[in-house]
Design a protein that fits this description.
alpha/beta; Urease, subunit C, domain 1; eight-stranded parallel β-sheet; globular; binds 2H-imidazol-4-ylacetic acid; binds zinc ion
Length: 411
Amino acid sequence: MEKLLIHNIGILQTPKGSTPARGVKQGENLKLNNAAVLIEDGIIKEVTSGGKLPDGVTSDTVHVDAKGHLVTPGLVDSHTHLVFGGWRQNEIPLKIKGASYLDILRAGGGILDTVAKTHAASEEELFEKSMTFLDEMLALGITTCEAKSGYGLDIETELKQLNVAKRVNEEHVVDVVSTFMGAHAIPKTHTGNADGYIDFVCDEMLPLVSSKGLAKYCDIFCEDSVFNVDQSRKVLLKAKELGFGIKIHADEIEEIGGAELAGEVSAISAEHLIATGEKGIKAMAEAGTIANLLPQTSFYLGKNYARARDMINAGIAVSIASDFNPGSCPSNNLQFAINLGYLKYRMFPEEILTAVTLNAACTIGAESKVGTIEPGKQADIIIWNTPDFETVCYRFGTNQVKTVIKNGKLC
Ligand code: IZC
Ligand code: ZN
């Protein structure tokens, strides 16, 4: 048996349990002083405080001295478009000249540009690139992430992306949960025929992805000039029937009823919610849908910030993710999303920690394994360079992680 002890922890801070933390519970973290964690074969065995060492420590236990620093659960990045060809650095000059995100997409660029580059890339290229992104993310404290397809928009390339996500999950220490997002844009083959493409997604793509077991979730871009509420409902209900968990990119740019649809179909999470108003908040609260907020995208698109405080007050569980993608958020640094959660959402550090660990894990079905530091959970743990999580929220622009422990192993 492999035993690892993290001792001399100044503060151990973690949310508790394996269900979404809503309302006031979002701000409830366990904080232990002078703590220690004993890990056995990658699983958390004992957590102690007040300088007491765990009972199970033996002479062959490897000791890791946290030197009085903060320890938290590993971060869960619950919304990424991890696997893609090329970049879109050419869009910024277009935006400086006045084009919006949707103008660029409507002109055949944006997502469709990445689709062309993802078609052109080999599976091996996409694999190597995604492995590098996961290396970067692990160094930033991310121990689990989600990865969406949606840069194929045809069977062959959607499967190529999903295969890459499967392979990186197997070969990288970071756990990767796959989401099928074939309805991410209207492909050039279906210009002017969004309904035809939606039928193709429902009748061909979803059953195939389901039969291959290549994705646990299904997501759709419900947005002005992309897929409307009726088209989104059709895809999500079909996905649900096939056993996928369902998610929806809702009200990222325009409020067209995406959050209300999320509530109506009992989506596990609704993503973005930048433009969501009262009706959407009410529908999500009633359905128990998690608000998965992506503040780096508000920053990068120069948009408003989602109404996180109102959502928490309405009893919605809030998670925060990076939205890493080559267009609206070319950053896989969840630490910057934490900073924006503090400064722009006005969330408190305890609420933010819950948002990037437990609640994020709940959006991808990983809550029984990760998201908290409690006996029985996977030992995905961060030793920070800071004395407290407030400092992690407040300082920005540098990596504040000292050491990452993944599955009980030092990375
Ligand atoms: O590539 O632009 N919003 N999808 C929906 C994205 C952003 C990713 C992209
Ligand atoms: Zn997204």
